[in-house]
# Entry
Amino acid sequence: MSEDKPDLPVDAEAVPLADLVREPGAKPELMRIVEADLPEKRKRKRKPKSFLEHLPPNARFIGAAVMLVIVGAGIALLAVPTKLVIVPVFVTATPLPLPWPTPTAAFADGIGKSSYDYITLETIRDTIPANTRVRLSIAWFDGQEWRYQIVPESEQSYVDARESQLAYAPLSLNGLTLTPSATPWPTFTPSPTFSP
# Structure
């Protein structure tokens, strides 16, 4: 059995499609290869551009130098023993509660009383000598320690005294005299401390 072979194109050369359009009633020609039937040529892939390609040559050089310095510094830090590496430490101050907690006054129970239950441990402002019985008029905390406005038994003057300059007055019970402590119990005074 013989197979019917289609007519193969005679020309191996491509013909533009516009040349194949004929007038109506014209005699058809043999089949020709049309440009649209030809396999497309493969496009060459573009070489990827570096991220510095869009910069001018001077900027490319500077960018490459900066990257080289950064990489070199990183390698140098890895090679240096850890004891010699200086790491910057950023200290941030923790905000303290405002207002700060006020410590308790050592002589709070005697403020505003009319009795002379306290004694001075030293001369205060050349007005009130040491070992003078005084009463506490008012008191305030100055941020470091308590201060009291004291009045001696003579009621002639009043002076501001620090808590460390006062003590409880000695008590006499049936001929037995109790002496005051040299200083009252210390009070807690908050102070901000920063450590690196």
